[in-house]
Amino acid sequence: MNLTHLGRAAGAAAHAPLRLTGPEQATLDALLRAGLGPLRCHAVELRGTPDLVLDSHRVCVFVHGCFWHHHRGCQLARVPTTNRAFWEAKFARNQARDAAVLTALQAQGWRTIMVRECATRRMQATRLGAELKRLLESGATHAEITSGPPDPAAAGSHLSAGTSPSQLPA
Known about the structure:
Blueprint: E1 3-5, H1 22-33, E2 39-41, E3 52-54, E4 59-64, H2 84-107, E5 111-116, H3 117-122, H4 125-138, E6 142-145, E7 159-161
Parallel strand pairs: 1-2, 4-5, 5-6
Antiparallel strand pairs: 2-3, 3-4, 6-7
Helix pairs in contact: 1-4
Family: Belongs to the Vsr family.
Keywords: DNA damage, DNA repair, Endonuclease, Hydrolase, Nuclease
Region (Disordered): 142-170
């Protein structure tokens, strides 16, 4: 598989080892096990710096931490009790930015997949890879992979495909 990293720094720092978070590494492993590639990590030239990019499918994959991107209904997305107003405003800004990034990429012809941290923790790599492959083949403009319903009101499927960024759960 061809795996490249577009570093932000120049010179020797640009050739530093690729550093991924645990959820990013799990998603990368799942994509590679599913035979999907070539791919790039942290594509700084694209809006929002997608975590993984499959140019051949024109797909950007974002691996979102449930806490920072406030995945509603997830146990990992609790709002801290100290300085609650600050955190609620912070999470709202993060979600607004996420929606704007997805909208901008889709306007440029990119499809987007959001993989939630909870999915990388609870799904086996083979299952996650199979779901990613299925979503790539579906042609959906946007999809989300989560270990549970993204919103308590959205009972049922753990996957949502074809959701527009403005319809993303808060």
